[in-house]
Structure formats: C-alpha cells, structure tokens
C-alpha cells in the first residue's frame, strides 16, 4: 500500500518542447478527425459520454441500472430516482463529459499528477465493467481498461504523460464533434430528434432544447478554454 501511495504522489511535470507539443496535437487530431480512425476512437468518446450520464446520476442520488455502447457510437445509461433535478443533471452531462474529462486529464498531466489520473481512470473503467449490459459495450470497456493497465505496468512516466495528453486533446476534439452532431440533428436531421439528449431533456422538463444545447456548448467551451489556457501557461 505504501508503494502504491508513493507511486501516486505528485511528480515534476514532464517537459515538452514546442515541437513535441505539435506532434502530440497532431496525434490527437489523427485519433479524432479522420473518419476511419474516429470510427474506433469515437467509441471511447461514447463511453465517456455515457459515464458522464452515470456519474451525474450517482452524484444526485440516483441508481444506475446499466449502460450500453453500440458500434454506431450511440449508447444509453439507465438510472432511476425521484425528482426531475437529478434526471436533468444526469441527462445534461453526456455531451460535455469528454471535454470535461479531457480538460481535467490535461491539467493533471501538466501539474504532475499523471499517475493519479491514470490510476483513477483505470479504476473507473474496471468498475464500469460491472454495469455494462451489452457484449459490444463490454468489449469497448475491456479494451480501454486493458490499455490503461498496459500503460500503468509497462510505460515510463514520460510515455504515460505523452499518451494521456494525446487522449485528453482527442477527447476535447471528440466532444466538439459530438456537439456539432447534436446541433445538426436539431437543424438538419430532425427525424433523428429522439437520439438527442437535448430533445429528451425537453420532453422530460419542458425546457426548450435550445437551452440545453446552449448549456452543452457553454460547458464544452469552458473546458476547451481551460485546456488551452493550461497548455499556454505550462508550455
């Protein structure tokens, strides 16, 4: 236990030159922009999206019954509880979750908490295996957990930092992609409204979908600004 606590202690943040930072950003762009690769990395973004719903539910006293992740990047997190507030908070945290997680992860790396971020993320992924209710979703979480464990066991602290930075930036980009997609559903593909969290929140609360889209945009925008500010101040 003492060794574990020591390994999670704050360390000197990894040094990153401007050239290496450009490489890291480029690697994140490769993960989150080209469609053939996004087809697969986007599944991890969907996982974080659904975890956002689940964490929001838990924090407001709701019970999480299960989660599903599908190959078309859709998913669901089912929870129950009394009152509309918890349901609204849970429902509103899906799209912003990848940006929030990405920004926090980026901050952790730049402040010397890479090991803590990797450890906590790995524990969350292992616990998620207990609530996944479809085989494909289980495979997505299992692969993510295995990758996290491999980083913990075999990668050097510097390599861990580089990988977490790439994933953090890719999650931020993925969250912006998700926001653009849901806005597109409301403006151009209204036959798909039933897939939109903003529309489901409108049906649940009576608050217009546009208000929820603005909330998603504000949370994602704030996360991106925080992440960019952190990078500029650090490097």
Automatic annotation (TrEMBL):
Keywords in alphabetical order: Membrane, Transmembrane, Transmembrane helix
Membrane spanning residue stretches: 12-34, 40-64, 85-107, 113-131, 136-155, 161-185, 206-228
Highest taxon in the source lineage: Bacteria
Pfam entry (one): Peptidase_M50B
Protein name (Swiss-Prot/TrEMBL): M50 family metallopeptidase
Native source species: Rhodoglobus aureus
Taxonomic placement: Bacteria, Bacillati, Actinomycetota, Actinomycetes, Micrococcales
């Amino acid at each position: 236990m003492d060794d574990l606590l020591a390994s999670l202690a704050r360390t000197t943040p990894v040094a990153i030159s401007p050239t290496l930072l450009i490489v890291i950003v480029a690697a994140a762009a490769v993960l989150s922009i080209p469609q053939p690769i996004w087809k697969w990395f986007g599944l991890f973004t969907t996982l974080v999206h659904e975890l956002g719903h689940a964490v929001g539910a838990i924090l407001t006293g709701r019970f999480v019954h299960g989660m599903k992740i599908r190959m078309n990047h859709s998913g669901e997190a089912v929870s129950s509880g009394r009152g509309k507030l918890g349901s609204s908070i849970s429902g509103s945290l899906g799209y912003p979750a990848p940006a929030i997680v990405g920004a926090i992860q980026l901050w952790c790396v730049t402040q010397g908490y890479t090991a803590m971020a990797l450890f906590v993320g790995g524990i969350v992924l292992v616990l998620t295996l207990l609530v996944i209710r479809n085989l494909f979703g289980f495979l997505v979480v299992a692969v993510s957990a295995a990758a996290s464990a491999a980083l913990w066991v075999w990668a050097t602290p510097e390599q861990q930092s580089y990988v977490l930075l790439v994933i953090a930036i890719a999650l931020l980009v993925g969250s912006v992609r998700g926001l653009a997609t849901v806005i597109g559903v409301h403006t151009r593909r209204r036959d798909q409204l039933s897939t939109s969290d903003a529309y489901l929140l409108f049906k649940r609360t009576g608050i217009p979908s546009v208000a929820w889209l603005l909330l998603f945009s504000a949370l994602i925008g704030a996360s991106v600004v925080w992440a960019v500010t952190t990078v500029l101040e650090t490097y």
